[in-house]
Each structure stands twice: as structure tokens, then as C-alpha cells.
Amino acid sequence: MSDLRLERSYPVSPERLFAAVTQQADLLQWWGPEGLHVPEHALDLSRLGPWLSVMVNGEGQRFKVSGQVTSYDPPRSVGFTWAWHDDADVRGAESHVTFTVAASEGGATLILDHRDLSDAEAAQNHEMGWGSSLNKLDALFS
Can you give the residue ranges of the Activator of Hsp90 ATPase homologue 1/2-like C-terminal domain (predicted)? Predict the structure, then answer.
């Protein structure tokens, strides 16, 4: 198993950053790597229960991921399970993501922990995907 941790700081209040990483209207602006959009979703991390998103790239390839929101502690953290679906819509290995928001000098810091990834290659792929997604979150606040 492999884990991934990313950290980004933003010039906004912790409450605003927490809303951006949990509320559907904000999530849809940055969720998924650059070049992908999310035409199908039940993407609301502001309550316990199921979530899902289908990301689509410019060539029409679909990438479905789903899980359960397992913890919700505003404005500090939200945790959720994560699993990709294959082409037959079979859900694969499950991992766990936590977004933690903390006050920092000049604003707030987002700490993204993605744990229990199957191996180092999966961690590397998720690091690229989350990094690209966070670039879109950066743009939301610039």
C-alpha cells in the first residue's frame, strides 16, 4: 500500500477553502485534472453518504470514480472513500482521501491525504491527477 500527501496554501479564509472542497458548485469548477470536465455527478462532499463523478476528456474517454463520505467536520476536514470503475462499471480497489483545512499566515492551507493506494505506481498517478486538479483550485482563487 502507498500513501500520498499534497499541501497547498490559499489567500482565503479556512471557511471559504472548506466550502471550495466540499460544496458541489465549487467542486465542479476544479474537480478532475486539467482538460477534463464532469458532465455526470453526484458530487457533494458536504454530507455523509455516497458520491460519484464521471470525468470526460477531450477525446470522449470516461473515467468514473465513486465512494462514500465517511467524515464531515466543518470547517476542518472531510474524508471519503475512493475507487475507480472499469469499463464494465465494476468498482475497483478502494482507497481513502482526507481534505484537511487549517488556518495559515495569509489565509488557509489544504492538506490532501490519499491513503491505501494499491502501489507506488497508483500513488504516482494520483499525485499527477490531484496536482493537476489543485492547479484548477489555484485558479479559482487567483
Answer: 12-141
